[in-house]
Design goal:
The complex is a heterodimer of chains A (275) and B (542). Chain A is α/β, with parallel strands linked by helices and 275 residues long. Chain A has ten helices and ten strands. In chain A, the strands form two sheets. A six-stranded mixed β-sheet of chain A has the order 6-7-8-3-9-10, sandwiched between helices. A four-stranded antiparallel β-sheet of chain A has the order 2-1-4-5, with helices on one face. In chain A, strand 1 and strand 2 form a beta hairpin. The longest helix of chain A has 14 residues. With 542 residues, chain B is mainly alpha-helical. In chain B, a hairpin with a 7-residue loop joins strand 3 and strand 4. Chain B has 21 helices and four strands. Among the domains of chain B are: 185 residues, no CATH class; 180 residues, MetI-like fold, CATH 1.10.3720. The chains are: A alpha/beta (275), B mainly alpha (542). At the A-B interface, helix 2, helix 3 and helix 6 of A face helix 17 and helix 18 of B. The structure holds adenosine-5'-triphosphate and magnesium ion (MG). The site of magnesium ion has 3 residues of chain A, from helix 1. Adenosine-5'-triphosphate binds next to strand 2 and helix 1 of chain A.
Amino acid sequence: MTLPPPRTPKIENRESKIAPPAPVRTLIEITGLDFYYSEKKALDDIHLRLPEKRVTAFIGPSGCGKSTLLRCLNRMNDLIDGTAIRRGSIKINGIDINRPDVDPIELRKRVGMVFQKSNPFPKSIYENIAYGLRIQGINTKSRLDEVVERSLRGAALWDEVKDRLHESGLGLSGGQQQRLCIARALAVGPEIILMDEPCSALDPIATAKIEELIHELKRRYTLIIVTHSMQQAARCSDFTAFFYLGRLIEHADTRTIFMSPSNPQTEAYVSGRFG
Amino acid sequence: MPATAENTIPSSATTARPAFAITRKRTRFLGLTLDECIQAFFGGNALVALIVLALIMVFLFREGAAFFGQNQRNLTVYRQAGLEYIDHIRRQETAHTALTRRLYDLRLAAFTQLTQNQRLSPADANARLAALDDFSVRFSDAVMPIRGLVSDLGEVAAAIKTRFNVNEDKTTQRAQLLAEGRAAEAAQVVIEPVDFAAELQPILDTLPLYRETNAAFAAGLETLLTAAPSLAQIEPGLDARMDEFKRQTRACIATFPEIERKLAAWDYAQPVPLTASLSAFIFGRDWLTASFWQDWYGIIPLFTGSLLVSIVALLIAVPLGVGAAIYVNQVATPREQRLIKPAIEFISAFPSVVLGFFGIAVLGELLRRFSQAGWVHWVPGFPIIERLNALTAGCLLALISIPTIFTLAEDALNNVPRALKEASCALGASRLQTIVKIITPAALSGIISAILLGFGRVIGETMIVLLCAGNRIAIPDFTSGPAALTQPVHTMTGIIAQEMGEVVRGGIHYRALFVVGIALFLLSLAINYAAQKIITRYRIAE
Ligand SMILES: Nc1ncnc2c1ncn2[C@@H]1O[C@H](COP(=O)(O)OP(=O)(O)OP(=O)(O)O)[C@@H](O)[C@H]1O
Ligand SMILES: [Mg+2]
């Protein structure tokens, strides 16, 4: 991959208030993206640059296209018939991911995804995590053991399940299942992790655990998280993008979005007056 | 006073209707409201269905149950008339015949070897095999004394049985006349009871003679074996087969003393228990009716026939049906789906008699022609000898069961949560990996139950097997391995359809067919039950 030249974003990082501004590299670059479900336009002229090793939150009222954009990033929309990007491009590390020579399977190994509803496979905990490696043809037990442990530790689940690795993943609690899904995504070694409302089905304690985990993960991964909870966006993200009716309304660092948004629609939404 | 009263009533009550109206007058019919009538109508329909089902079952079991008593009597006569005694000896003869057949097979193999591989002319080959032929003839003749004994004794026993049957007929005749009040005529029907002990004596008296004959037979075979020609110069493999033949013959000779012991211990008066009648049906290896010697009602040949045909059908239908279901559900474009699904479901619109007709007229001959092509001779059972056989019927039955398997398997695949597929793809699995490792295992219980229901559909199918399975009542020769699949068979459904029309109502044969029907019913019930259980037991938690 050819690396684009590092650049300092115009929008300031929250951390930069404390530490001297660290140079943040743009990892994902979306330009002029129009996305269609058959004839229905779901995304309209999106321009967005997402920084590396930071958490970006997508917020906006229901149906505004957050999930759609998220699924564009690992080409999950390919699985839906009739979807098309009619205009614009998405570049990750400078490579247009919709180019014909890009293999979506390779892409998805680099861009992991965690879904709204936890969806472990009806297999054991161990096999759930080993799956991503097994499909790559890795079957060596020692290697699998190692990755399973590392992934579970990475998802802060190891201590809770280390004695029951060979029991069904469906026997875990909702919050544990969601962390299992995160561990599963980590196992294939992605650079980017997409999370679509990962906590919407969880109670506050499980949610807090996941949020803590997100803080941990951003040291090594670039995270994009869709959420309906303003508090969650404020707590865990560095940058926030606000969408409305398929358009990107405002994108800035989280503090700016919540404290002094420049757009009145953003202001209305984050203060809870509509949405 | 009304005027003052009106003033005191709250304004909302001044309108005629009550403030909180939740009651309504309903029209009633026979004391039932309309809702209740509708409910009664549907409930009634369900009840009628249940009652009819119960009546059918009661009828089936009542007609069938009497079979076992009748068969017990049938077996008792078989023993009392001495037929059983003779069949013990006959078994020896049958075993010897099977051995002779092996010898002929061996000769054929040797002949092929000589003419094809060693390029001898048929005349030369025959000359080379003269020693073997001589041996074969002498081996086959060795059984003659036993055969003679069996046929002599058989005539005596058959005569006893006939006498008994005549008596039975006369008894019924007399009972009938008495019932009609014609006592004088009834008195004229004379019944001479059969004295089995006396009648059997001549048969039993031959035991010493039999012992003698048998000893000579065994000794004869032994000397023959030691003088058997060696086939080693023709081909070492054939010599090994010859050794195998010798071994089998010696094993056969070893059973002779056991038979003698059985004959010595045989007692015509020993009662036949009801369980013997039951096991004669369940484990009986012969279905033989209207025979001059003895009728046998054993379900095994029919059951294996049904099973064999079903196996052929499922071997074809499972890959096709499940494969098509996976393709349509996971791979096909919506356009293909719209085309394939109705097309497969349309197959079940064919009347099975039309398919059977097609099997007789076209498929049977086509398969036989195909099997004669040189390059498929490696397939076990090819070339096919009979046009109508388990394979022909199985192919058509597969067609019948594909819609069932396809539709149900497709349903099962459809029920796999989409989230699992997405999760797998998001981890970088290809479509094929997702299908093989996630979707199919998740739908497996549904697919298995689809296969079971397809099996149920096949085993209950009648017309096709009746027309195309060849209807030979015999247990297929499983020693030839998969080649058994190309043999003609008869089935449980086929036998009922074929024989029910020509049996005497209430007779043993009639009842035997009912018991076959019951067996079929229980089998279907078990299959359906298993299918239900599997699908509910292993349904994946959503
Ligand atoms: N598979 C689909 N086919 C057709 N239209 C779709 C499909 N999925 C989503 N849409 C439409 O695209 C638009 C954006 O949907 P999307 O799921 O991205 O919204 P969202 O912002 O994630 O909403 P939510 O917060 O409710 O999840 C909506 O109008 C939706 O109706
Ligand atoms: Mg969404």
